[in-house]
Amino acid sequence: MNVGLLGAGRIGSLHADTLGRDPRVDHVLVSDPIAQRAADVSDRVGGTVVEEPAELLSTCDAVVIASSTDLHERHLVMAAEAGVPAFCEKPIALDLASTDRAIAAVEASGTPVQMGFNRRFDPEFAAAREAVRAGALGQVLLVIGQHHDHQPPPVEYVGPSGGQFADQLIHDFDLLRFVTGQEVVAVNAAGSDAGMDMFGRHGDTAVSVVTLWLDGGTMATLCGVRMDPLGYDVRMEVFGTEDSIAVGLDDQTPIRPVNAPAPTSPHREWLPRFGASYAAEMDAFLQVVQGTAESPCTVADARAALMIATACRLSLQEGHPVDLKDVS
What percent of the chain has pLDDT over 90? Predict the structure, then answer.
């Protein structure tokens, strides 16, 4: 099959490499507003540069949307209207109205779409989900999640990113639903720029803590930190009436036990920690395109995660808990 790639930046480049290695993919078509970036990625995978997204969609069997966030909605609608199965990086858009417009186009076309929440394909998070679904933990009482970046993003990234909830913690909101099988009904969010003006001047946070109430009676606390001196730290602890488990806790976890040395080779970036999950999600998408599997992460899942992020933003601004029914 011929697979198109809209966006040849950091994540698009990663997907291009995965597609270029896959025997099911005959050719990769690359489009990016920065011509040299498109050419570099295309040359590396033996692909072809296609200048206009519309032209690319007219000649491919499937498309991977890895363009800038502000273009996701437009490109997803274009793919739906062209009848091209699409993989779309999160989020569809930064607001629910735009998200709903894209979802309406997808539903009208009947074209399969898989969203890019790669951590669902991490073996540890998948194992946690199976343990919960099998009842091995009993009733799930509490989930605690940590998401620490090693270094802050570039200054120019902060403004258009949508903020810490919609950009960083949206992965954790999705994982909470994925692992527990429950829906979030209310949130209470707090945060601070922690003296990092690059976030403060955009009304964004560098440190945030969210308490979440789930419809099955479980409670959760998710924490986000934009800078961790020891490395890249993504963990989840799930506490039940019969057992408790942890995801992301090993000798590479960038946290130092008190009175003990720091880990010698902690995770420093997201790719070493989750590289395999990116490959696995693309494998799943190609199965969707071939018609041998259903989408494992739908546009409805993307909307649910954005609803939580939107409620968190409102809670932070207004200083009180917010019911999700008030933002839907």
Answer: 92
pTM (2 d.p.): 0.96
pLDDT tens string 87-114? 999 999 999 999 999 999 999 999 999 9
DSSP, collapsed to helix, strand or coil, labels residue 2 as strand
Both tokens assigned to 144: 């605690």
Residue 256, number of CB atoms within 10 A of its CB: 13
DSSP result, 183-250 = -EEEEEEEEE-TT-HHHHTTT--SEEEEEEEETTS-EEEEEEES--TT--EEEEEEEESS-EEEES-S
**What tokens were used for 313?**
């933003």
Please return the burial class of 52, using the count of CB atoms within 10 Å of its CB with bins 0-12, 13-18 and 19+. exposed
Domain boundaries, the chain: 2-111, 120-275+305-326
Distance CA 250, CA 246 (A): 10
CATH class name, domain 120-275+305-326: alpha beta
- 306 phi and psi angles, rounded to 5 deg: -70, -35
Q: What is the number of residues in the chain? A: 328
Distance of CA 94 to the CA centre of its chain: 13
Q: For residue 265, how many other CB atoms are within 10 A of its CB?
A: 10
The domain defined by 2-111 carries CATH number 1.10.10.10 = no
pLDDT in tens, 132-190: 999 999 999 999 999 999 999 988 888 888 999 999 999 999 999 999 999 999 999 99
